[in-house]
Structure formats: structure tokens, C-alpha cells
Amino acid sequence: MSGRAVLAQARLETRLLVRSSESLLITLGIPLGVLVFFSLVPVLPTGDTDAVTFLVPGVLALSATATGLVASAIQTAYERKSGALKLLGATPLGRPGFVAAKLASVLAVLIVQTGLVLGLALGLLGWRPQGGLLGIALTVPAVLLIGLVMASLGLVLAGTLTAELTTAVSNALFLVLLMLGGVAVEPDVLPDALAVIGAASPLGAAVVALRSLLDGAAGGPAAAAALLGWGALGTALAARTFRWEA
Amino acid sequence: MAVIEVEGLVKRYGALTAVDGLDLSVARGETLALLGPNGAGKTTTVECLEGYRRPDEGRVRVLGLDPIADARELSPRIGLMLQEGGLYPHVRPAEILHTFAAFHDDPEDPDALLTSLGLDDVRDARYRSLSGGQKQRLALALALVGRPEVLFLDEPTAGLDPVARRTTWELLAERTRGGTTILLTTHLLDEAAAVADRVAIIDRGRLRLLGTPAELTAGGDGSVTVRIDPTPDAAMLAARLAAHLGVEVRPEAGDRLRIAALATPTLLTALAGFLTAHGGDLADLRASGRTLEEVYLRLVDDPELQRSTAVVA
Q1: Could you identify which of A119, A138, B40, B88 might form a hypothetical disulfide with B36, taking C-beta atoms 3.0 to 4.6 angstroms apart as the criterion?
Q2: Residue B70 to residue B61: CA distance in whole angstroms
Q3: ipTM value of the model?
Q4: Where are the domains of chain B?
Q5: Residues of B with CB below 8 A from A79's CB?
Q6: Across-strand partners of B152?
Q7: Which of B90, B98, B100 sits opposite A20 (nearest CB)?
Q8: pLDDT tens, position by position, B261-289
């Protein structure tokens, strides 16, 4: 594995990630759709808070989930199914090089998503976070870290399930996390049991952590710890269970 | 030193022994074809050499290196084409080949390779829209782009039309002239005969026969097959010819007569005498009529031969 090999593969992975329209729908369509729709249509019971202020942390975390846990997982699962992974593992890129390229492609897409979400919120939706510029600046690396956590969980799915099952499970998880993770629905309105599950989920923890960075909300350190726990679990499981052949 | 060494290789999958004590060695610049029916252990053998499978017993070396322990050192020096190896549905041939080229320090020019494999027209098409033959040629291009010293090709021309197969063979021959060593698996006997310096016939994980195509097809039962024009009645003609030559003659399909004797000058003179005496022209004559296919089918069909391991060379 050389830097040049990883870079070449990362470019290919990134191009492939944005080439399929299903993948774009998940990575850009749904997060930006949630942001714009709920910012402009006053259906969220956000009380004193602006809808956009409530939405931005969730939509950023949702973007990371869409790319890491859904789009990249599905792409990886099909790479495994097709035999491309098996072949790549035996090239000078090697298996560590492949994983590095895969994560780099997730980060590349996530940088574009983050730019679009922040740009749209600041430029068009009148978003003014309490944390100010420093909060925004800290948010970008935090979102990338969330992307890596989600990608580790995505690799657990892609490396163990069939491609078809990876697609189904990751989409289902996305929907459940979207509803329970505090993105567009405030955790307070959920039944207690669901609220607990939502808060403990990787997306729920990510939303709280980002909310704390951007708006000084409580619970940031605990949420960050939970998020890192998910990342450690995902990485350990992926390293143990990932299969390179179909 | 042999470039590919297989010594006493055993690989089991549960109760099934896929490779059962195989020995092979391939010299630099040599092309060895592994020939055998489905499930013979061809792919397992190749995958042990590619580092995908860990041998249960025995030892495999490629360029003197252990395919698993020394994978990092070995991977830049080998090229491989997997059986039914697919790629991403949305990838374009040119971009994947350029990506693979970037894995190597001194790759071949990807665009020239696309041209020589006849993939120019589809260089920016999506992989899933390619024909089976185009996918196969792209897989070969990916194997070749790093200028490998050793090529492992698992059924490289499966699904190719005859012209594309011939082009592929020529391309491989060019590489071996440059010193590349090739191990390929095939069920195609004509492919083995056309490209391989030596052919190893394996069945049930064991080596059955090993030799050059000429060695494997030489000798045999020493028969001569003729067709005489006209042949109004093959059975009667066979009986007359047998009486004239003093050896057994059996009529076969297509009015051919199989003479159970070696194609010696004496036999051929006697045959000419028969034609002169009885009238008729020699429409076809084939001496020592063993094709690689006959060798193979006899070996794979014959339970007696399957129990013994006959190694010609």
C-alpha cells in the first residue's frame, strides 16, 4: 500500500459513490430535504428555538449517517458481491489500503455534504448558531469523526451480510435512526423507551454532541463518549467479521 | 529456480479434500495449463498461490516468496484474473484500469492496453453494460497493467468468441516472450494445446498427467484413421482392408476406417497397394490419432486410470 495507490482508489471510490442516483438521494436528497422542508414549513414543535437552529446539528449527523452507514455500506457490499474486493485485496493496494481509501471517500463526500448544509443554513435559512464561528469550525472535524464511526458500522453490515440484505438493513436503520435520533423529532415527544434507544443510538449521540458544540446544549461529553464507544465497537466488529469474498 | 513451486499441496474444505498432495513447478517464462473437470482442484490450487487460501499441508512459493506471509512484497510482481471476477457495476473500463495502473511503480500505458484488447469503444461505458467478452478482456487488462512477472489466469477466455480468444492467446504469448511466467486454468483443450508449454491434467485434487502437449498426444494406441473415396459400404471395405493389411480395421463414424497399427512406411505402402488394387482415393489420413481431448477424456472417464497417477514427463 502506497499513498499514491490509496489516493487513486479513494478517487475511484468517491466517483462511484456520487455516480449512483440512489446513493445521491440518500446522501444529499434526504438530509437537505429535511433541512429545507422543516426550516420553511413550521410543523416542528421547537418552542422558542428556530426550526433551523434545531435542525442543523441533526441534519449534519444525518448526512454522516447517510454516507457512512448507508451509501458506503451498500457500495462496499456490492463490491464484495462482484468480486472487486477479492481482486483489490491481492493488488499492491492491499486490504489496509482499501479500507483507507474507503474511509477517505466517505470523508470526501461528507465534506461536500457539510459544506452544502452549512452554506444553505447560513446563507438562505438565516441560521445563527450560539457557538458562533468557533462552534462551526469545531463542528466540521466532529462531523467527519461521526462519519468514520458510521462507516465502521457500515463496514460491519457490508462485510457480513449479502449486498441485498445490506441495502435493506442499512436503509431500515437509516429510517429508524431518522425518527428516533432527534433529527426532526424532538426526543421529548417520543415514548420513554424509544427516547432512551434514540439517545443511545449512534445518530442520537452524534446529534447531542453536535448540538452541544453549536448551541452549548447539555450532555456533550457523555454523547461524545457514547459515539466513540460505537466507533470502537464498529471497528472491532468490522476487523473481526469482515469477509472479503462473496 | 522455479518461479512457481507447489510441493505436496493439500487443501481441505471440511470433509472434502479439494487438493490432495499436488506437486508442480513452473519455470521462468513458461506457460503451464492446469486442465481438469469442474471440482478438480484447479481454482483451489491457483488460489493457494495467489494467497487467498492457506494450504493445510505442503508448501507453495511464488518467486521464492510465501503468498500469504510475503503478500506485500509479492503483490506488485503478480497479476491475476479471477474466475467470474466481476467489478463495480458503475465503473468505467478506462478509470478502473488507470486506478490499477496507479497501484504500480512502472505500469503499462493503460490506454494502449485498452486499444490492444479492443476495448477502445467501451472505455467510458459502464461495466454492467459490457458484454461477457469485454468484461473478460478488461479483467485481463487489469492483470497485465502492472507488468507482472507471474500471471495467474483462472479460465481467461471463458465466454470469449474464437477471434477474441486468439487475440488473447497472442497477447499472452507476447508476455511470455518477455519472460512472464503464466499459470492458467482451463477446460478448453485447444486452449491448453495452443498456449501452454506444458499441460498438467488434474482430477480430484491430484496430478494425473504432466507433459508438453506433444508428449501427451504422442504414442497412444498407434492407430491410423483413413477415409477412402468412394466408400459404398464401410463395413465391407473395412473387412477387405483388414484382409489386405493383415491387421484389425474398424469402421467409424463418417465412413472413416480405423487401422490398428502404427503409421510405418510398410503400412502406408500396403495401404497404397490396396488403393491401387481395389480402386479409390485417399480422402483423409490421420496418424497416431490422439488429440489432447482423447487423452483427457480417457483419463477422466477411466476409473482404472483415475486410481493410478501416470506422469509422462
Answers
A1: B40
A2: 10
A3: 0.91
A4: 4-217, 224-287
A5: 88
A6: B80, B183
A7: B90
A8: 777 778 888 888 898 888 888 888 876 55
